[in-house]
Predict the 3D structure of the following.
Amino acid sequence: MKKEMYDLAAWAIKVAKSAGADDCRASINRRRFVDISYRERKPENIKEASTRGLSIEIFVNGRYSGQSSSDLRQDALKDFISNAVSTTKLLAKDPFRTLPDPKYYKGRADMDLGQVDPDYKNLTPEARHKTVKAIEDSCLSKGGDKVISVTARAYDSYLEEAVLSSNGFEGYQEATVYFTTGQMTAQDEGDRRPMGFDYAVSMRRKGLPPPEKIGAGAAKRTLALLGGKKLKTETIPIIIENRNVSRILGGFLQAMFGRNIQQKQSFLADKKGQKIASKHFTIIDDPFVKAGLGSRLYDNDGFATKKRVMVDKGVLNEFFVDWYYSRKLGWEPTTGSPSNLIIPPGKRSVKEIMKDLGRGIVITGFMGGNSNSTTGDASVGIIGHLFEEGKLVQAVAEMNIAGNHLQFWNNLVEVANDPWTYSEWRTPSLVFKDVVVSGV
């Protein structure tokens, strides 16, 4: 299949050039997925699909377009590509849209990233249904008489893609992904119906926890929300749970992207090389994590990937700048998007940290909110638990934290030892001091 995909991509480029394109990049992809969910101990959704498609980027007379088709018959594709070139010629010029300088394709690592599960082809429909049933049964059992509803789901997919460009880029990748989740809604006081969930994602089926653990985790997290209420507004230490760090970190990262910098919508634009956070804040972009969900040997531009320390002990080192925005900014490109983002873990557990903090809030979820990449101002609703002397004493709901990213990340005082591995962002729980938590 790999050679067949390369051959079709090469043919598509030839057709585009013959139709008048100056340059082009073509990708052929093939994908299969199965998605099953259960509710009330019976299937609610069963989906299975296989797709194939071509995506082509066309550069002609200083103009650019990206178009795609799922019809891979050569006669149909020939007309599609010729029409795509013709319509591209009608667009406004954009002198910054070109294929990258081929020098950035060089230096690609030669390694197996381990992103394909060799047992994927042996996964049976019976095994899929057994997984979903086990998630639901476990959640219902642990939820007891508080359960209003439970939804269990399992998803798996296989993706294969070949990419060629007219100026020498050639890339191929394949990957499997597995996703399991359980979601529960519980009856609380009055008309409150808190909802909690647990999940796991992995490129290998053996990398997932047992389905019973997912179901039990969904029930435990939901029941822990019962009795949640507002507290008085207080300046207090907070711990953001590992799996939820990405919600806050994402607002910070938006200011690191070339597009926002070029559009003057970044509060970090002029701060490269400066200290913008506490010494505990380090972000590593590592594309070479074995079986990592974000691992890759080349990025969307075809650049050979590199491990990069984006923020080093609070000092901003680099931005995420793709080829297009590097040309607009007049900067050297890095990469247009993160691969596996890693905050190096600390040495202590959350339980140990809680004992030393005395009184604080563990945040286990966020609701709504916004983050302004231009100013750094952010506000978000929180749910979680108040703790005292290392013990959880009260569920917390309908409260809010607000502030500015530049101040907030300077209040980071410790990183826990519990990185969340079921994500492209491998973040441990983070501890912040002097945070105003707004409530009553």
In short: The first strand starts at residue 23 and ends at 39. The mean pLDDT is 96. The radius of gyration is 24 Å. The chain has three domains: 2-29+47-105, 120-223, 229-440.
